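Thread: Modeling a multi-component assembly for a lab meeting

Hi all, long-time lurker, first post. My supervisor asked me to bring a structural picture of a complex we are working on to next week's group meeting, and I have zero experience with this. I have the sequence lines for every component (1244 residues in total). Could someone generate the structure of the whole assembly? Inputs are pasted exactly as I received them:
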Amino acid sequence: MSGTWNPARMRDVFERVKNWGRWGADDENGALNLITPAKRREAAASVVAGEVVSCARELAVQSSVENPNPALHMMIQGGDDCVIPGVGLEAAMDFVGVAFHGMATTHIDALCHVFVDGLMYNGFAATEVKSTGARRGSIMCARDGITSRGVLLDVPRTLGVEWIDAKNAITVAQLEATEKAQGVRVTEGDILLVATGRDARRTKHGPWSPMADGLAGMHPECVEWIHDRGVAVLGSDGVSDALPNIDIHGWGMPIHQCALVAMGVHLLDNLRLDRLGDACAKQKRWSFMFTVAPLRIERATGSPVNPIALL
Amino acid sequence: MSGTWNPARMRDVFERVKNWGRWGADDENGALNLITPAKRREAAASVVAGEVVSCARELAVQSSVENPNPALHMMIQGGDDCVIPGVGLEAAMDFVGVAFHGMATTHIDALCHVFVDGLMYNGFAATEVKSTGARRGSIMCARDGITSRGVLLDVPRTLGVEWIDAKNAITVAQLEATEKAQGVRVTEGDILLVATGRDARRTKHGPWSPMADGLAGMHPECVEWIHDRGVAVLGSDGVSDALPNIDIHGWGMPIHQCALVAMGVHLLDNLRLDRLGDACAKQKRWSFMFTVAPLRIERATGSPVNPIALL
Amino acid sequence: MSGTWNPARMRDVFERVKNWGRWGADDENGALNLITPAKRREAAASVVAGEVVSCARELAVQSSVENPNPALHMMIQGGDDCVIPGVGLEAAMDFVGVAFHGMATTHIDALCHVFVDGLMYNGFAATEVKSTGARRGSIMCARDGITSRGVLLDVPRTLGVEWIDAKNAITVAQLEATEKAQGVRVTEGDILLVATGRDARRTKHGPWSPMADGLAGMHPECVEWIHDRGVAVLGSDGVSDALPNIDIHGWGMPIHQCALVAMGVHLLDNLRLDRLGDACAKQKRWSFMFTVAPLRIERATGSPVNPIALL
Amino acid sequence: MSGTWNPARMRDVFERVKNWGRWGADDENGALNLITPAKRREAAASVVAGEVVSCARELAVQSSVENPNPALHMMIQGGDDCVIPGVGLEAAMDFVGVAFHGMATTHIDALCHVFVDGLMYNGFAATEVKSTGARRGSIMCARDGITSRGVLLDVPRTLGVEWIDAKNAITVAQLEATEKAQGVRVTEGDILLVATGRDARRTKHGPWSPMADGLAGMHPECVEWIHDRGVAVLGSDGVSDALPNIDIHGWGMPIHQCALVAMGVHLLDNLRLDRLGDACAKQKRWSFMFTVAPLRIERATGSPVNPIALL
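Re: Modeling a multi-component assembly
Sure thing. I ran the full set together rather than chain by chain. Output:
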């Protein structure tokens, strides 16, 4: 991490990676524009074993320090009272509800999820996200799903540690060292997944508070690297940002702010990447076909998802 | 449709297509067992154009005669009050909740969704679906997503009609005529999608009540054909069953009852298949890669989904 | 109903009944200020029989034409799985959720529920009701409950009909005729309940759509009468307004608009008044102690309630 | 507290205070039967000042160690998008949802909330509380509200402490000493409120975990006293039970178990009693009119409430 980071430098980075207007003044797709039919064909062609691996956590219905607003999963009708009168059918039904943002649910952030100075990606006003939902930047730009080549950078594996400590924000050098160690290179239109070992730490020590105790993620210096490589979607087992952020006043989550707002790069938060890491290590391949299928929720700021890697 | 249909005959079909014990006494995957790694490789290899098509409807948040229990989508925080104190971040967030079964939300039915005589697939008791959720047959058997070859049988297109009338339940002869017309054949491990033209009718006439006014679907005689072909997952723009069912007392939804309970075939209900039909017609191919990624909701009787076809 | 009603006349009434500033520029209690300790003592002193009558409908969990957004009531844990591990307790628990505004749930409207020209009671801006809740005019002004003398004007009983037709909006003359027939007079600080016979009609004909088929209520000419009498809270088995409103462009619900916004009079919508009418008729008394206890929901635009009359 | 407490002794108490069959084999009202019209008249007649005091906490929408499942309060429509098309109305609306049991929401427990050995009050089976709701013992027995004389026993005030420590379970001697100090006596049909000073402790130290760190309440020896006095409803700023309970294996919450199941006494949990204590102390009266108005939720195990004292 060369040099000092301060608000002025962060702002400078933010301006340099801005994709506003790049795909038109009215564009709401952002870096999804980098995923072309050719890229999807490349992704499909990369399938070798036919092995599927989910990168989602189980829906977090239990309260914990990392999950203050647990998801709701409730039965409407169970097996003890399952006869539907007049239909000639025995059935069970349930309800699921979730405030998916936060640190516990695997979800995708729409571009309207974050603002900088009251503006979202491509310069639309924050107030376009009304009390009745988002008029601009909603998750509906991904309504046909996101399918591309996925690349996993398993940084702890490269470093020979179980997990990255929150204080040691991942650097560009570490990303590139991981590329080298894994024999893979992030290219334009890729979905980049950066593992921090959060699953391993949680398995060993149980959940902790990301805001109070920190969460591993990338140093803000990675922003330009992500931009230069043409990453289409960025995901992590954490939230991509290292928390709490290094002291850059006013930039609480620089990766979120630069990815969503400046670059138009959608984020996948709270993935599980341990199973995928194991599968990749076994197959000695760190790229794969990757599919994310957000629910078609009009005006939504994101969606819970179950992203699937196909190796 | 040869001969008369009565409860005894339906029961007989139910018994003949039973897969209970076929994959072990403890199996909860059912016909998903038919989707092998080789099948997934076949699916990926079939991608030609790199075109993605979603088969989901927009989340049905408005009440209507087909949607008596609308989904909830509400903002937690919009652009008018988006500064998160102490974090240095401006963000918008929302909540989504849905009782996904019924006739309006695109969803997958878990095998525990339906019972016959108090039993679900593989003979587990209905009471395993407790007030606190399903202990057997939950959607978690599809936790890594469902990826296979998909086949669309666009029956109205073959018949030269905009949509199938609810009273004219789709027959085996019509399925096979559609295969022939489209130059495709349903094979073991396929995800079979049967279009009835529901989207076209709704576009033209608005929503109607499936229970009161009927919903197009398949005749119960199709059950054995589905079984013989080795269908892994069955989907429709309706609910696969023709509603109201032809008069077979006690068998209100024979496709649901035979697919979920006897065969262990998961169902995809309330798909949108018009966009997929157009894409297939344009490309003159009626098979494609198909991915369904249910949310990882433990103990759930299904999940809202956004199924993605990749042609 | 003397003379013609048009927007200008309605606006004139709105201005004449305005209580803005009457109880201070910062007041958020509105006409609740008219309920004094003395008034509450009067209410308590009026109790004769010790008979309690609820004026609420059962929570409307079933969808219908009058209830497009049914309330949610779901078990978290039932008797089939009731042992709480580690606690030594068997318990059942549930969840209740409701979007209480509308035409089906008995609820109280907070003063911030309605705006005229972007302003709520006492001139606060509509934008004080943010995506995160109401900063002004919330139901918390009734946090200690509302207890006063209640008066029921059972108009259909006076007119000798089962119910009022939606087209025959209730007039001042009818209100006063009912007072006379019942031997009661509405006085300052009273909670006025106006019955239209909606319960009787629903019992006989089932639910109907208030927006499409109309809902009985008061003519806008009643606004000034309500103001002159010093009504503190206004309730009805409908929504006080006659729907659809007589043709006054831009004034869709004049009673709501004048009561909530101009006068600061809270409204009770969708009451059951048939049981109370019977009890009053039997006791030949049309005033009683009346208690409304809104849930203490900070920033809320109202609350579901179960108002209780004690005769 | 005389002698040793063990499961056998607790069972013996449970049997001695049983009201099963007392009001008929089919009774679901329990000790509410003790609240007669005369009792309500007595309550109303006791009003002197006309002062109202709410005994509810603000709906607990924020997660905390005492509130792992926060209530949902979300806007459906705020002031930034408030025009309802076609109606000629500007309105704001919201949704409220809550799993009201637990340690944070002011609520009433229905008699079906707790079971002992698979049975609820009056011997109904726990399985009558199905996945679709309670068929027996629901809160609907209080559908017309509960109005009676309330008595507050402010034990910490009598003891000269700010709050009772969880380890020092309140004894019969302390209840009677408080009666004496306050000049009041609990009589048949009363709603008894027992203050522990929880509000004062929370104000000073913030919320804590009742299960991990304990919660002040009554010793099991109070059960028979409550029974002998003919208490109709029992409430507390905690949950009446002292937590964790003194070591009586299998009796995790003896007050809950004996009150709800044996006696048929409804419970009010998580009240605020500090404001009421101050009002009583000022007026030097510890009895008052008390009204609880549960929402009319069919099949519910209780309801969130805002209980109102009128002095």
